[in-house]
Amino acid sequence: MRFLSRAALAAVCLLIVFSISAQAGVVMKVKSVTEAHKLSLPGQPEPRQVPETQTVHTYYFADGSVRADLGDTLSMTYQTGGDAVAMMRHNPKTWTAMPMKGSLDSLARQLEETRGKQAAEQMKKVMESTFRLTAEVEPTDETKEIKGYECKKYNVTMSMGMVQNKMEWWVTDDIKFDHELLPFASWSQLAAFPGFAEATAELAKINGMTVQGTNKTLMGADTIVTHTQLLEVNETDIPPSQFKVPEQYERQPFELGGGYNR
Fold it and tell me: How high is the pLDDT of residue 22?
Protein backbone atom coordinates (compact mmCIF):
# COMPACT_ATOMS: atom_id res chain seq x y z
CA MET A 1 0.00 0.00 0.00
CA ARG A 2 1.38 3.40 -0.99
CA PHE A 3 1.25 6.13 1.63
CA LEU A 4 0.90 9.86 1.02
CA SER A 5 3.98 11.97 1.62
CA ARG A 6 3.88 14.39 4.53
CA ALA A 7 3.54 17.37 2.17
CA ALA A 8 0.68 15.75 0.26
CA LEU A 9 -1.06 14.75 3.48
CA ALA A 10 -0.73 18.29 4.81
CA ALA A 11 -2.20 19.66 1.60
CA VAL A 12 -5.16 17.27 1.82
CA CYS A 13 -5.76 18.22 5.47
CA LEU A 14 -5.62 21.91 4.59
CA LEU A 15 -8.12 21.41 1.78
CA ILE A 16 -10.49 19.55 4.12
CA VAL A 17 -10.24 22.24 6.80
CA PHE A 18 -10.81 25.03 4.28
CA SER A 19 -13.78 23.28 2.71
CA ILE A 20 -15.36 22.95 6.14
CA SER A 21 -14.63 26.48 7.35
CA ALA A 22 -15.24 28.46 4.16
CA GLN A 23 -18.75 29.40 3.11
CA ALA A 24 -20.04 29.44 -0.44
CA GLY A 25 -20.73 33.07 -1.22
CA VAL A 26 -20.86 35.90 -3.71
CA VAL A 27 -18.41 38.78 -4.10
CA MET A 28 -19.42 41.88 -6.06
CA LYS A 29 -17.44 44.97 -7.06
CA VAL A 30 -19.25 48.25 -7.69
CA LYS A 31 -17.75 51.45 -9.09
CA SER A 32 -19.03 54.73 -7.68
CA VAL A 33 -18.36 58.07 -9.40
CA THR A 34 -19.42 61.34 -7.76
CA GLU A 35 -19.49 64.30 -10.13
CA ALA A 36 -17.64 67.51 -9.35
CA HIS A 37 -19.96 69.80 -7.37
CA LYS A 38 -20.32 72.79 -5.08
CA LEU A 39 -20.78 72.25 -1.34
CA SER A 40 -22.12 74.95 0.96
CA LEU A 41 -20.64 74.86 4.46
CA PRO A 42 -21.90 76.68 7.58
CA GLY A 43 -19.93 79.84 8.24
CA GLN A 44 -18.37 79.89 4.77
CA PRO A 45 -19.31 82.83 2.49
CA GLU A 46 -18.77 80.85 -0.73
CA PRO A 47 -19.48 77.19 -1.56
CA ARG A 48 -16.48 74.87 -1.67
CA GLN A 49 -15.59 73.31 -5.02
CA VAL A 50 -15.36 69.52 -4.71
CA PRO A 51 -13.62 67.61 -7.56
CA GLU A 52 -14.90 64.36 -9.09
CA THR A 53 -14.18 61.28 -7.00
CA GLN A 54 -14.15 57.59 -7.94
CA THR A 55 -14.33 54.66 -5.51
CA VAL A 56 -14.65 50.89 -5.90
CA HIS A 57 -16.81 49.18 -3.27
CA THR A 58 -16.55 45.43 -2.67
CA TYR A 59 -19.47 43.46 -1.17
CA TYR A 60 -19.27 39.95 0.32
CA PHE A 61 -22.35 37.78 0.95
CA ALA A 62 -22.29 34.32 2.58
CA ASP A 63 -24.53 32.34 4.94
CA GLY A 64 -26.48 35.26 6.41
CA SER A 65 -23.48 37.57 6.66
CA VAL A 66 -22.48 40.64 4.67
CA ARG A 67 -19.38 42.80 4.48
CA ALA A 68 -18.87 46.04 2.57
CA ASP A 69 -15.41 47.44 1.84
CA LEU A 70 -16.10 51.09 1.02
CA GLY A 71 -12.83 52.00 -0.63
CA ASP A 72 -9.55 51.33 1.18
CA THR A 73 -10.29 53.05 4.49
CA LEU A 74 -13.68 51.83 5.74
CA SER A 75 -15.46 48.47 6.07
CA MET A 76 -18.82 47.35 7.49
CA THR A 77 -19.93 43.89 8.60
CA TYR A 78 -23.31 42.55 9.72
CA GLN A 79 -24.79 39.12 10.52
CA THR A 80 -28.49 38.31 10.18
CA GLY A 81 -30.27 38.74 13.51
CA GLY A 82 -27.57 40.97 14.94
CA ASP A 83 -28.39 44.17 16.81
CA ALA A 84 -25.39 46.19 15.59
CA VAL A 85 -23.26 46.88 12.53
CA ALA A 86 -19.48 46.75 13.00
CA MET A 87 -17.71 49.71 11.37
CA MET A 88 -13.95 49.34 10.86
CA ARG A 89 -11.47 52.05 9.95
CA HIS A 90 -8.22 50.63 8.58
CA ASN A 91 -5.91 53.60 9.27
CA PRO A 92 -5.63 53.64 12.22
CA LYS A 93 -6.98 50.15 12.93
CA THR A 94 -10.05 50.90 15.02
CA TRP A 95 -13.68 49.82 15.05
CA THR A 96 -17.01 50.61 16.67
CA ALA A 97 -20.36 48.84 17.00
CA MET A 98 -23.26 50.90 15.64
CA PRO A 99 -26.48 49.85 17.43
CA MET A 100 -29.53 49.56 15.19
CA LYS A 101 -31.91 50.44 18.00
CA GLY A 102 -31.78 52.08 21.38
CA SER A 103 -29.05 54.55 20.41
CA LEU A 104 -31.24 57.59 21.16
CA ASP A 105 -32.22 56.17 24.55
CA SER A 106 -28.56 55.64 25.37
CA LEU A 107 -27.68 59.23 24.42
CA ALA A 108 -30.67 60.55 26.38
CA ARG A 109 -29.49 58.73 29.51
CA GLN A 110 -26.01 60.22 29.13
CA LEU A 111 -27.43 63.74 28.69
CA GLU A 112 -29.78 63.31 31.64
CA GLU A 113 -26.82 62.65 33.91
CA THR A 114 -25.18 65.96 32.97
CA ARG A 115 -28.03 68.32 32.05
CA GLY A 116 -31.17 66.84 33.57
CA LYS A 117 -34.25 64.94 32.40
CA GLN A 118 -35.95 67.86 30.63
CA ALA A 119 -32.93 68.55 28.43
CA ALA A 120 -32.61 64.83 27.63
CA GLU A 121 -36.25 64.53 26.58
CA GLN A 122 -36.00 67.67 24.43
CA MET A 123 -32.87 66.34 22.72
CA LYS A 124 -34.55 63.02 22.01
CA LYS A 125 -37.54 64.73 20.35
CA VAL A 126 -35.25 66.85 18.17
CA MET A 127 -33.18 63.82 17.17
CA GLU A 128 -36.30 61.80 16.34
CA SER A 129 -37.55 64.46 13.95
CA THR A 130 -34.22 65.70 12.55
CA PHE A 131 -32.40 62.41 12.03
CA ARG A 132 -35.31 60.07 11.21
CA LEU A 133 -34.55 58.04 8.09
CA THR A 134 -37.33 57.27 5.61
CA ALA A 135 -37.36 55.29 2.37
CA GLU A 136 -39.87 54.80 -0.43
CA VAL A 137 -39.51 52.26 -3.24
CA GLU A 138 -41.46 52.72 -6.49
CA PRO A 139 -41.12 49.87 -9.02
CA THR A 140 -41.74 50.71 -12.67
CA ASP A 141 -42.59 48.69 -15.78
CA GLU A 142 -39.44 49.83 -17.60
CA THR A 143 -36.90 47.13 -18.45
CA LYS A 144 -33.68 46.92 -20.45
CA GLU A 145 -30.55 44.79 -20.77
CA ILE A 146 -27.37 46.12 -19.12
CA LYS A 147 -24.05 44.25 -19.16
CA GLY A 148 -25.91 41.09 -20.17
CA TYR A 149 -28.42 41.29 -17.29
CA GLU A 150 -32.15 41.77 -17.65
CA CYS A 151 -32.89 44.82 -15.50
CA LYS A 152 -35.98 46.52 -14.11
CA LYS A 153 -36.09 50.20 -13.18
CA TYR A 154 -36.87 51.30 -9.60
CA ASN A 155 -37.29 54.86 -8.35
CA VAL A 156 -36.14 55.17 -4.74
CA THR A 157 -36.37 58.12 -2.39
CA MET A 158 -34.52 58.28 0.94
CA SER A 159 -34.70 61.25 3.27
CA MET A 160 -33.22 62.31 6.59
CA GLY A 161 -33.77 65.81 7.90
CA MET A 162 -32.83 68.37 5.26
CA VAL A 163 -31.11 65.79 3.05
CA GLN A 164 -33.02 63.94 0.34
CA ASN A 165 -31.71 61.24 -2.01
CA LYS A 166 -33.56 60.62 -5.28
CA MET A 167 -32.31 57.47 -6.97
CA GLU A 168 -32.88 55.66 -10.25
CA TRP A 169 -31.79 52.03 -9.99
CA TRP A 170 -31.69 49.39 -12.72
CA VAL A 171 -31.95 46.08 -10.86
CA THR A 172 -31.51 42.46 -11.95
CA ASP A 173 -32.65 39.30 -10.19
CA ASP A 174 -30.32 37.15 -12.32
CA ILE A 175 -27.65 37.26 -9.58
CA LYS A 176 -28.43 34.82 -6.78
CA PHE A 177 -27.57 36.14 -3.31
CA ASP A 178 -29.35 37.19 -0.11
CA HIS A 179 -30.70 40.51 -1.40
CA GLU A 180 -32.33 41.34 1.97
CA LEU A 181 -28.82 41.87 3.37
CA LEU A 182 -27.93 44.43 0.69
CA PRO A 183 -29.32 47.50 2.53
CA PHE A 184 -27.15 46.63 5.54
CA ALA A 185 -24.11 46.81 3.23
CA SER A 186 -25.10 49.82 1.14
CA TRP A 187 -26.58 51.98 3.91
CA SER A 188 -24.97 50.55 7.05
CA GLN A 189 -23.42 53.92 7.98
CA LEU A 190 -26.97 55.01 8.86
CA ALA A 191 -27.72 51.96 11.01
CA ALA A 192 -27.94 53.85 14.31
CA PHE A 193 -30.36 56.51 13.15
CA PRO A 194 -34.11 56.38 13.91
CA GLY A 195 -36.12 54.69 11.17
CA PHE A 196 -33.27 52.49 9.87
CA ALA A 197 -35.19 49.23 10.46
CA GLU A 198 -38.26 50.53 8.61
CA ALA A 199 -36.12 51.92 5.78
CA THR A 200 -34.24 48.64 5.26
CA ALA A 201 -37.54 46.74 5.25
CA GLU A 202 -38.77 49.04 2.48
CA LEU A 203 -35.52 48.66 0.50
CA ALA A 204 -35.75 44.87 0.85
CA LYS A 205 -38.74 45.04 -1.52
CA ILE A 206 -36.15 45.41 -4.29
CA ASN A 207 -35.46 41.81 -5.23
CA GLY A 208 -32.03 41.95 -6.80
CA MET A 209 -28.78 43.80 -7.36
CA THR A 210 -28.39 47.25 -8.88
CA VAL A 211 -26.41 46.95 -12.12
CA GLN A 212 -26.53 50.66 -12.89
CA GLY A 213 -27.81 53.60 -10.90
CA THR A 214 -27.87 57.35 -10.41
CA ASN A 215 -28.28 59.08 -7.05
CA LYS A 216 -29.08 62.79 -6.70
CA THR A 217 -28.47 64.07 -3.18
CA LEU A 218 -30.30 67.32 -2.45
CA MET A 219 -28.96 69.39 0.45
CA GLY A 220 -30.43 72.88 0.50
CA ALA A 221 -29.07 74.66 -2.57
CA ASP A 222 -26.55 71.89 -3.31
CA THR A 223 -27.06 68.88 -5.58
CA ILE A 224 -24.58 66.01 -5.57
CA VAL A 225 -24.84 63.42 -8.35
CA THR A 226 -23.33 59.94 -7.99
CA HIS A 227 -23.32 57.18 -10.62
CA THR A 228 -22.85 53.51 -9.74
CA GLN A 229 -22.04 50.57 -11.99
CA LEU A 230 -21.66 46.88 -11.23
CA LEU A 231 -18.17 45.84 -12.35
CA GLU A 232 -18.03 42.11 -11.60
CA VAL A 233 -19.71 39.24 -9.77
CA ASN A 234 -17.89 36.12 -8.56
CA GLU A 235 -19.18 33.03 -6.78
CA THR A 236 -16.48 31.84 -4.41
CA ASP A 237 -15.79 30.39 -0.97
CA ILE A 238 -15.51 33.05 1.73
CA PRO A 239 -13.90 32.25 5.12
CA PRO A 240 -15.98 33.28 8.19
CA SER A 241 -13.09 35.50 9.32
CA GLN A 242 -13.98 37.88 6.46
CA PHE A 243 -17.05 38.93 8.45
CA LYS A 244 -15.29 39.43 11.78
CA VAL A 245 -13.33 42.34 13.22
CA PRO A 246 -9.60 41.46 13.38
CA GLU A 247 -8.22 41.10 16.90
CA GLN A 248 -5.62 43.85 16.40
CA TYR A 249 -8.32 46.50 15.83
CA GLU A 250 -8.96 48.72 18.86
CA ARG A 251 -12.59 49.27 19.83
CA GLN A 252 -13.80 52.87 20.11
CA PRO A 253 -17.02 54.21 21.70
CA PHE A 254 -19.86 54.97 19.32
CA GLU A 255 -21.40 58.43 19.05
CA LEU A 256 -24.55 59.08 17.02
CA GLY A 257 -23.90 61.48 14.17
CA GLY A 258 -20.17 60.93 14.24
CA GLY A 259 -19.69 57.17 14.34
CA TYR A 260 -16.68 57.43 16.65
CA ASN A 261 -16.35 59.30 19.89
CA ARG A 262 -12.95 60.91 19.42
Answer: 52
